[in-house]
């Protein structure tokens, strides 16, 4: 299936009972399997979204963040990229997914978020998806923390306390200012890595 065909298959973000949902999910998995290397498909609130490979600055931000998490967290945590997560609002692929060491071993490509401590998104071409739809999806899935590295705004936001379909708390700092990460992280994130 080509990217042009994906646009035809994508449906608006409304609830559809019965076969409509099944057809959309089947189309989504078909697109996911036929994408060029490096591209990824997500199903976000009823819409199939295809993203190109990220730029180097995006990947550098993820790498530097995961390095801090692995080295400084008080708990034994690590992060992976491109882990498919099933949420109540769709099938999402965070830029990074963080959990206890060994959590991801044996997981299917698309898995429930059980045990995931934090998801991370670094904004790129469509930052509002990361700021809104994905934030609500991760909260609805009960993922304790969501870290948004917003490159266009020059700030990092840690969302926490998921409930009622969204996160109820957030801590926001501009790039370069420290951001305290609570337990199980237990360290202060150096956000100058994003500048």
Word description of this protein:
Keywords: Endonuclease, Hydrolase, Nuclease. GO terms for molecular function: endonuclease activity. It holds the Pfam family Uma2. Residues 35-191 form the Putative restriction endonuclease domain. The chain has 195 residues and is α+β, with helices and mostly antiparallel strands. It contains 4 helices and 13 strands. β10 and β11 (166-174) form a beta hairpin. The N and C termini lie far apart (38 Å).
Q: Can you give keywords for this protein?
A:
five-stranded mixed β-sheet; 2 domains; alpha+beta; tt1808, chain A; 4 helices; six-stranded mixed β-sheet
Secondary structure class reads: alpha+beta
Helix content percent band: 25-40%
Give the H and E element order.
HHEEHEEEEEEHEEEEE
Overall tally of structural domains: 2
Strand order of the largest sheet: 3-6-8-9-10-11
Going by CATH, the architecture of the largest domain would be Alpha-Beta Complex
Low-confidence stretches: 1-19
Gyration radius, in Å: 17 Å
Protein topology:
Blueprint: H1 3-9, H2 19-34, E1 40-44, E2 47-51, H3 56-72, E3 77-80, E4 84-87, E5 90-92, E6 96-100, E7 110-111, E8 118-122, H4 127-140, E9 145-150, E10 155-163, E11 166-174, E12 178-181, E13 187-190
Parallel strand pairs: 4-7, 8-9
Antiparallel strand pairs: 1-2, 1-5, 3-6, 4-5, 6-8, 9-10, 10-11, 12-13
Summary of the model, kept short:
The chain has 195 residues and is an alpha+beta fold. It contains 4 helices and 13 strands. The chain starts with a helix and ends in a 5-residue tail after the last strand.
